[in-house]
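Sample A.
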Amino acid sequence: MAINVLAAADLHLGRRSAGLPANDETLASKNAWQRLVQWAIDKEVDVVALAGDVVDQDNSYYESIGSLQAGFDLLGQAGIQVFMVSGNHDYRVLPQMLSTRYPHVHLLGSSGQWECGIFRKEGETVQFVGRSFPSGSPTQTTSPVSLLRPDQWISGLPTVGLIHGDLFDPLSVYCPIRSNDLAATGIGTWVLGHIHKPYEEDLAGTTIHYPGSLQALSAKEKGPHGFLLLRVEEHRKSIEKVFLSTVRYEDLEVSVDGLNTREAFQAHLVDMVQRDAETRLAELDDVRFLSYDIRLIGQHDQEAAVMGWASASQNELALRIGSEVTASVRSVESQIAPAIGDLNELSREPSPAGILAGTILALRAGTDTPLLTALEAKWENQQRELQRAAVYLPLMAAGPTAATPSDGRGHLLRECNRLLSQLQQQRRANE
């Protein structure tokens, strides 16, 4: 008889999806938790495994406790066991919530030490090895994986490791861990919390999974979101992704070539959103809001006007897709290149426009100029200062966010295009 394990992370009860109607209850993370619980009951899941940050933070305690308790009660009544670890948001809250009343809920390693819990069902066994964030601090700068000893679980049994930590930043203050160290433990499956973007890796027979946030909570969390369903039978394992989020954030490129009136642009934008959304219909069963970040591309000699036409869509567009989904525009970014003719010819001018044209050509070709080298150095310095700022650290939970040199060149290209377009418009106005 197979054992079915529902594995999720980063519920962040107390939060809601950003940039969408504030009065819609389906955007609240507690709603996603309620639907997860009902799904587990309807599908007769045996175990729910949670990899931390179930509650958003201390100041969400009162908002979260009722829905969390109600979910645990329903799971208990259905005979479903819960194995979980705490993360950097709920390291103090979860021990308070679970101190009594829930014999079927097991908070592993609440003392900061590794702990093993075992689930048995009709001859099948799965064990869960986990370690919670220490209760004294929301930060940890060293990996605890080296403290995990083989005698802390039963060798030879199917095993799921649970930990909340950062797989991508060795200097993270939120429990840095390494894939190779996880694989070296001999545990076959790891479920991790902290990074909100779904991620998976297979390393020497060890599978490592970030389920990602259960509900997509911000535009940084692109794509489908939900949980994993692990099925273990006779030491064989299969893993299925289940999408549950009511929100999906996506990027969409829209060309502005040849769109010279507001009406033409508006019709084109609506058509592009409609077409993209319809290609995703098969993945939108639970989605109610499809939110787009629009990137304008192509060439145009009236960038400011086009941006004005596009920006209006952020407040006005609410496009119905199928019977349940509403598509909208969250943001608009310009990567419009100036329609200025021959850049090579312009770059020969000893003018600001000529210098910008030469810089654009170098960026496109992947080469350097003295100005470009100086601009890149300044951009990199500003990025380092930003990433050291305290306000930046919470953003790391949504996934790897460190900017790359290609990000810098992309930003510089957009700015050079914008400035050159403005210069050329001023030149034409003065002629």
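Sample B, a different protein:
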Amino acid sequence: MRKVDVTVDVTDAVHLGQTLNTVATVCLPDTVPADPVVCFAFPGGGYSRRYFTFDVTGGDEGSQADWHTQRGWIFVACDHLYCGDSDQPADPSALTFEHLAGANHATVGHILGLLADGGLVGGLAPVRTPTVIGIGQSMGGATLVLQQGQRSTFTGIGVLGWSAMHSVNWTPPGSPKGPARYFPRGTNVGALTPEVFTEAMPEMTLDEKGMPAAVAAFHFDGEPRDIVEADMIDYPRRRGNPPVWASTTIPPCSMTMMSPGAVAAEAASIDVPVLIAVGERDCCPDPMFEPKGYPRSSDVTVYICPQMAHMHNFAVTRTRLWARIQAWGDGIWAQRRPVCQSTK
């Protein structure tokens, strides 16, 4: 697999009065099909594009990007603005979900243009008829829904670990439900301080070891303890020596995704295939009810992966999820092929 880092100027897509760039990693299979699936992947809050490209647990299957490229896909892992290696606006509180979605849409368009004219890397033939899908985990799922609903970027979207109804952190059965907080979308939400974060989600308050109470919502039983601690200690501040898959910054507007129906209007306008994939412990309270949020789509799939919590790519069952995503994406590719005519 070849990996190519691409920097994309998204200044004109966000209009924040300064030059801004996003960064993505394009992962290419050894042999690129003439009409491949191109999958763009967007991480959640507190994570970078390396959540998809780094072999987190050292298993034989490698990273998620490895897994899909070994099966013929072009896989593009993207950093949102104000996350990972992408630029940070001078005033982070001015950054809205619409800005994130606009920047991601511009990133997709630029990379597809490079693939189409053969300008991505030497020796790669032009890729002009791809099947373009998007997947987004947690905050990445929220921005993906908004982007698709407003801009129709993709032929299909996979919403991973996020609810179009109301995303809430998993708590053990019988736990008291906290009040739902409403953060108006598109307004100045101010700095995302630890105090603001834990006021909205008390279950993320850190204990004396720096571990949030909601660690079981993010990591399922049986995951390597050193990986869990590396991921969760001091989350989401990520001070000191953060893991390679982490982002030390989270857009303040991410708080708005915890509001009930944060992007419900966009979800209701999506008319392409939708994959709703969650772990058995996740931020989606009622996965089987989620298709109701996508009334214009005639193709909504729900998959609940066992032994998996919110951070899917750390789970021991992660390849089961990847296989389901691969089959779903290949199915969209097949639907775009000419229908065979009966010879009778």
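Observation for Sample B: The first helix runs from residue 11 to 14.
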